[in-house]
């Protein structure tokens, strides 16, 4: 391409002697041809001087492919033919790695045999009443114990439940009372209240109930305790404040058979 442009430039310069308008065009073509031809010749010269660094192959690569010179044979053994490929393992004697040594642990004296552990003994069955029984009762179990306890007094009982939260109201009627004519002789409210001392505000609704039904005797039974103000309020208004120690004392007045019946209810065996 450079030579062609160079020839066109020379021809135009020769015609410019006859037509001066072609002088500039001929000079431009001549100059362009010289540049293209010179660049081509220069690239050809320098391409042979510089080798591609990425095409360089180290000498040991041929050894890996078995193309290197064969290893000199030992004295008295025939040499390998020139065309035989030699693996790199045969040319270089690589030292074999030594097997790893396991650390020697010091021998410890044998441990004495430990005696077999005995299975824990099962707890003894509960046969008597104790204050700790109230801590394991559910609200429903406590309500059932109170119902049975007041029913063992010899009075007719009419029970009203307070719902899933626990608690019952027990109306006590005389066995000789006429149905619909004689009112209850006493009323009892029973609620577990675990770990919470009862104050006056918990007992006051019982006084309102006594006034509405004109009942002069009442009992508030709980497995918890009462504050001092609550005890004074109950005593002044004719209410028997029965805490867990009072319940245990009342249960102790029942017959052994009745106590076992109450214990079975408290343990969930009814």
Describe it for me?
- GO terms for molecular function: DNA binding; endonuclease activity.
- This is Restriction endonuclease type IV Mrr domain-containing protein.
- InterPro entries: Restrct_endonuc-II-like, Restrct_endonuc_IV_Mrr, tRNA_endonuc-like_dom_sf.
- It holds the Pfam family Mrr_cat.
- It comes from Polaromonas eurypsychrophila.
- The protein has 270 residues and is an alpha/beta fold.
- Among the domains are: 2-47; 131-266, Trna Endonuclease, Chain: A, domain 1.
- The chain has nine helices and five strands; from the N terminus they run H-H-H-H-H-E-E-E-H-E-H-E-H-H.
- It has helices at 2-15, 23-47, 59-64, 88-91, 139-151, 200-213, 228-236, 244-252, 256-266; strands at residues 156-161, 168-173, 186-190, 218-221, 239-242.
- The chain has a five-stranded mixed beta sheet with strand order 1-2-3-4-5, with helices on both faces.
- Helix 6 links the parallel strand 3 and strand 4 (218-221).
- Helix 1 runs antiparallel to helix 2 (23-47) and helix 5 (139-151) packs antiparallel against helix 9.
- The two termini are 117 Å apart.
- Residues 88-94 have low confidence and may be disordered.
């Amino acid at each position: 391409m450079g030579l062609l442009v160079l020839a066109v430039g020379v021809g135009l310069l020769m015609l410019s002697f006859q037509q001066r308008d072609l002088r500039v065009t001929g000079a431009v073509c001549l100059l362009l041809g010289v540049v293209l031809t010179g660049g081509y010749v220069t690239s050809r010269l320098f391409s042979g001087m510089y080798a591609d660094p990425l095409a360089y192959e180290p000498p040991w690569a041929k050894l890996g492919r078995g193309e290197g010179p064969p290893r000199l044979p030992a004295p008295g053994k025939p040499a390998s033919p020139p065309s035989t490929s030699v693996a790199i393992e045969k040319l270089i004697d690589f030292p074999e790695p030594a097997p790893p040594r396991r650390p020697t642990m010091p021998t410890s004296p044998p441990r004495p045999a430990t005696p077999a552990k005995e299975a824990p003994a099962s707890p003894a069955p509960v046969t008597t009443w104790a204050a700790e029984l109230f801590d394991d009762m559910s609200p429903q179990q406590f309500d059932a114990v109170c119902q049975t306890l007041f029913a063992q007094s010899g009075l007719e009982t009419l029970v009203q439940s307070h719902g899933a939260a626990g608690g019952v109201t027990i109306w006590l009627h005389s066995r000789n009372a006429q149905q619909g004519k004689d009112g209850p002789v006493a009323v009892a409210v029973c609620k577990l209240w675990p770990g919470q001392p009862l104050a006056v505000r918990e007992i006051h609704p019982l006084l309102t109930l006594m006034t509405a039904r004109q009942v002069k005797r009442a009992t508030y039974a709980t497995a918890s305790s009462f504050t001092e103000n609550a005890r004074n309020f109950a005593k002044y208004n004719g209410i028997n404040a029965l805490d867990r120690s009072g319940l245990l004392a009342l249960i102790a007045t029942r017959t052994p058979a009745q106590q076992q019946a109450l214990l079975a209810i408290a343990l969930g065996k009814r």
